[in-house]
Fold this sequence. Notes:
- This protein is mainly α.
- It folds into two domains: 9-104, no CATH class; 110-202, no CATH class.
- It has helices at residues 11-22, 38-55, 74-87, 92-102, 112-118, 127-140, 148-155, 162-169, 175-178, 186-197.
- The protein starts with 10 loop residues before the first helix and ends in a 5-residue tail after the last helix.
Amino acid sequence: MKPPHLGSASTAAEEYFARTFEEGLPGYRSRQVGGRDLLAMTKTALLRALTITDELPRTHWVWQPGYAIQTVNVRRLGDFCQFSLREDPSDELALWARIGMALSGDHSEFGRDSFKILRRRAGFDAAWPVYAACFVQRIWASSEQVRLGPFLRESGLLEKAGATIDAIRERRDPYIDVFEVEEFTREYAAECLEIALWEAPA
């Protein structure tokens, strides 16, 4: 995914990102567009995808049917990702934008389907799905599991993610602090990790 130039995001996209994504995840403010950590990757993708969506002609499939609200929003962003992945199932921008949307926790998944594809790319960091799953699990607490354990095992990422898992369990992973969400403490992240990793005995 090519990161957008800082000046390339439309004002509407930037404003929507700030009030919809950054408001719920303050850590985005400290992340640089084009960075290689989880939040930087999702911020880059969300801003770029929102900008592209906003700049599409309103006759484009993404903007059909023509509802009264013709400004960029998360529903149209989802339609953009759907359109892009229909054209190219490995479209990196759309995959990362979907992970960014998953971090809002509207559904009890953490971008699992996107990570399944992205894990085959050079430079993939096994820590990314671990952080994403922990963050989404915090919303669902113990009411629903995000199923990180099966994902890591089936994807062959469990060993590669081991150092991150150990650091979160031992409350010494500094990346948890980057999210800047008050209730997402290192202690709570460790609890969320155990829920997300749990698998029923065979």
